[in-house]
């Protein structure tokens, strides 16, 4: 009775069939990354705005004022009294009625030229030159409400976290492709509702749900790809992330061509409905079918894979076995019970948290530093493309640990230098910041691979899922840390990023090197990993479990 990996080797480990499925499911990375980074363009600054005096709208209609004339009557008197007041978060504490003069509406309110008129905070009566350009102007996320923009991104990441647990569990129980298709439908529907939300509360609710389903599409698509290829083809897990980068590169083009935030939201949401067509071309994971005791269906799919790959399975195969079994109901205690497992778990959790927080912080920072947002975002995305190629070239030659550590240290140095470089040398500041973005991208992608190699077969799926959940926690904290600290000093977040990355770079040096050794099958194997450092690596066993996210 052959094992699944033996049958897969005979059917083709990465033939025409797997390449087709890989290409189709990789498109999910484009839509997911667009959702992930969309806040930069959905929440961009709305341009000029000011606070409208009560009664100004009616008086403006009667007098036939243009918006510029209304602004002059509203804002200029503020400058006479206090040049630092720009009329955005404060207004004159007066009320205009229809009897006010069209040429001097403040004439009956006192001697405004001396600046003696009292001021009042603005509450929901803002006027924007570009009223529907972003969610900031749509839902008045300015002045005292500015923190709500941070909240919108935190809510999205909270959805990612919920999706990792809820849909990750559902995919293990009900099937990969079923949950993938359900998630695609959910992302599309929730994305449309977000675009037409009547208020900010509805926006937040469905942005959370879109994040949850979005994580389901990315996670299950990744798992399906890694489960239908041979164990020697784990490089696919790195290559698929190139499509994530492609989404980052495409997003500024979409935002440049579409002037409203609703249009951008629809552009990144509607393509998910096209993925429903995969029902007819992407099969259920045969590995999952075997874990659910559905060997006949799994064998039928394997024969179809072999046929498309130009191979032929023996007609004598009537049943397939799988060599690896998962521990029933694993818990966090299983990951910290022994010394080396505890060390690996804590360091990996910190690495996930740090990589996500810094990566997302650097992405969102582009929206607040000025300059050409579209060009800067495109360049910073394009620089991520070499990351996957650098990983592919280095990890099987010099190992995992050194590139992991060096990329974090380089990100730390780049963030620190960027913070203190003078602004009058923009090309140098941009170059160093770009190097930091490339470095943290490498660290982010390496942690996917290293995490799966440092857990035993019996705990790998649970361990990687738990550790990677810290990625979403970092994403929840990132917008608050970035925008609130940047309000104190624009470069202060970079100092925090630098410290976090430096600590991470030092900590990952404590992890064992896994280059050239077989994947651990038991906790005891993990405890013995450091003893392999001075020895020739053992060849990886064919048939070990693939990595999951």
From TrEMBL:
Top-level taxon of the source organism: Eukaryota
Keyword set, alphabetical order: Cell membrane, Glycoprotein, Ion transport, Membrane, Mitochondrion, Nucleus, Transmembrane, Transmembrane helix, Transport
Keyword Glycoprotein attached: yes
InterPro entries in UniProt: MFS_dom, MFS_sugar_transport-like, MFS_trans_sf, Orgcat_transp/SVOP, Sugar_transporter_CS
Places the protein is found: Apical cell membrane; Basolateral cell membrane; Mitochondrion membrane; Nucleus outer membrane
Transmembrane residue ranges: 21-42, 151-170, 177-196, 202-224, 236-258, 264-282, 347-368, 374-395, 402-421, 427-450, 462-486, 492-511
Coarse class of the protein's main subcellular location: membrane
GO terms for cellular component: apical plasma membrane; basolateral plasma membrane; mitochondrial membrane; nuclear outer membrane
Membrane topology listed for this record: Multi-pass membrane protein
GO BP field: dopamine transport; histamine transport; monoatomic ion transport; norepinephrine transport; serotonin transport
Catalytic activity: agmatine(out) = agmatine(in); L-histidyl-L-proline diketopiperazine(in) = L-histidyl-L-proline diketopiperazine(out); (R)-adrenaline(out) = (R)-adrenaline(in); (R)-salsolinol(in) = (R)-salsolinol(out)
Limits of the Major facilitator superfamily (MFS) profile domain: 99-516
MF terms in GO: monoamine transmembrane transporter activity; neurotransmitter transmembrane transporter activity; quaternary ammonium group transmembrane transporter activity
A Pfam family it matches: Sugar_tr
Family under the similarity heading: Belongs to the major facilitator (TC 2.A.1) superfamily. Organic cation transporter (TC 2.A.1.19) family.
This protein's name: Solute carrier family 22 member 3
Species assigned in the record: Aegithalos caudatus
């Amino acid at each position: 009775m052959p094992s699944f990996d033996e049958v897969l080797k005979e059917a083709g480990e990465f033939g025409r069939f797997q390449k087709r499925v890989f290409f189709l499911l990789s498109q999910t990375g484009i839509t997911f990354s667009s959702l992930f980074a969309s806040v930069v363009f959905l929440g961009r600054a709305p341009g000029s705005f000011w606070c409208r005096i009560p009664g100004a709208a009616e008086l403006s209609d009667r007098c036939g004022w243009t918006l510029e004339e209304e602004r002059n009557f509203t804002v200029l008197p503020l400058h006479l009294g206090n040049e630092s007041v720009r009329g955005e978060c404060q207004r004159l504490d007066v009320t205009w009625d229809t009897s006010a003069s069209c040429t001097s509406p403040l004439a009956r309110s006192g001697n405004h030229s001396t600046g003696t008129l009292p001021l009042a905070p603005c509450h929901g009566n803002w006027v924007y030159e570009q009223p529907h350009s972003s969610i900031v102007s749509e839902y008045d996320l300015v002045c005292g409400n500015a923190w709500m923009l941070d909240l919108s991104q935190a809510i999205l990441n909270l959805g990612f976290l919920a999706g990792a647990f809820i849909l990750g569990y559902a995919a293990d129980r009900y099937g990969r492709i079923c949950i993938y298709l359900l998630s695609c439908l959910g992302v599309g529907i929730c994305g449309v509702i977000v675009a037409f939300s009547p208020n900010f509360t509805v926006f937040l609710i469905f942005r959370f749900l879109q994040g949850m389903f979005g994580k389901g599409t990315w996670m299950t698509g990744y798992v399906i790809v890694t489960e239908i290829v041979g164990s020697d083809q784990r490089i696919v897990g790195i290559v698929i992330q190139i499509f994530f980068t492609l989404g980052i590169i495409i997003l500024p083009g979409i935002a440049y061509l579409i002037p409203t935030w609703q249009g951008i939201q629809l552009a990144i949401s509607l393509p998910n409905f096209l993925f429903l067509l995969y029902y007819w071309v992407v099969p259920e994971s045969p590995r999952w079918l075997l874990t659910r005791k559905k060997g006949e269906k799994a064998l039928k799919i394997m024969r179809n894979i072999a046929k498309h790959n130009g191979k032929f399975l023996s007609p004598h195969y009537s049943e397939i076995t799988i060599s690896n079994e998962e521990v029933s109901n694993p818990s966090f205690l299983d990951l910290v019970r022994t010394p080396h497992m505890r060390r690996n778990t804590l360091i990996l959790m910190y690495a996930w948290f740090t990589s996500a927080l810094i990566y997302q912080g650097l992405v969102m920072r582009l929206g607040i530093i000025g300059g050409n947002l579209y060009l800067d975002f495109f360049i910073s995305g394009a620089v991520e493309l070499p990351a996957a190629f650098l990983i592919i070239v280095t990890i099987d030659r010099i190992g995992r640990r050194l590139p992991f550590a060096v990329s974090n240290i380089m990100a730390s140095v780049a963030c620190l230098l960027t913070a203190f470089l003078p602004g009058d040398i923009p090309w140098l500041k941009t170059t160093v910041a770009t190097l930091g973005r490339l470095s943290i991208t490498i660290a982010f992608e390496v942690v996917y691979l290293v995490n799966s190699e440092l857990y035993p077969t019996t705990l790998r799926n649970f361990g990687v899922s738990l550790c990677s959940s810290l990625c979403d926690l970092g994403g929840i904290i990132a917008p608050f840390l970035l925008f609130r600290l940047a309000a104190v000093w624009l470069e202060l977040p970079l100092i925090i990023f630098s410290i976090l990355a430096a600590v991470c770079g030092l900590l990952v040096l404590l992890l064992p090197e896994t280059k050239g050794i077989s994947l651990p099958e038991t906790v005891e194997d993990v405890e013995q990993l450091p003893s392999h450092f001075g020895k020739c690596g053992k060849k990886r066993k064919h048939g070990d479990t693939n990595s999951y996210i």
